[in-house]
Amino acid sequence: MLKNLSPLLSGALLSALDAMHDGDMLTLVGSGYPEEEIVSPVIHLGEVTTEAAADAILSVLPLDNEIPAPIMFLDCTGSLDDVPDVAFAVNGIASDAELRRVAMTRLEFDDFVALARHSVVTVRVGSDAPPCAFLLRKGFC
């Protein structure tokens, strides 16, 4: 175990994060996300929440600050006025990790899947309630 490093950050996940280039995307999905839509290598984190996975990942992964919204999330509500609690939480985790306000973009399913197909890695968590998925665009330190 490394000091001050989340135990969720396995060797495989750290290696995948380290191999990412500026502008590359990581997809973070729950178990409810359709398996057939995932084309990048998958790292399973087991029965953890999306929030716990995001906290671990964003503790080491810098987000892109050259684009207005480096986080995109799958809109499962269909309502522009309703942001799922998990999306609100991930936004707060990202803002805390980046020490700045991080904007997010809401995407419908087809648009989300089209972008997710360009991810270099997909991190899958066992928690699928509520169903939500995120794209995180890597920046430089």
UniProtKB/TrEMBL annotation:
User: Is-annotated flag, keyword Isomerase?
Assistant: yes
Cross-referenced InterPro entries, in alphabetical order?
A: RbsD-like_sf (IPR023750), RbsD_FucU (IPR007721)
**What are the GO MF terms of this UniProt record?**
D-ribose pyranase activity; monosaccharide binding
Classify the source by domain of life.
Bacteria
Question: Would the keyword Isomerase turn up in this protein's UniProt record?
Answer: yes
Question: What Gene3D superfamilies has UniProt attached to this entry?
Answer: RbsD-like domain (3.40.1650.10)
What keywords are assigned to this protein?
A: Isomerase
- Supply the EC number(s): 5.4.99.62
Q: Name one GO biological process term.
A: monosaccharide metabolic process
**Reactions it catalyzes:** beta-D-ribopyranose = beta-D-ribofuranose
According to its UniProt record, what is one Pfam family this protein matches? RbsD_FucU
This protein is called what?
D-ribose pyranase
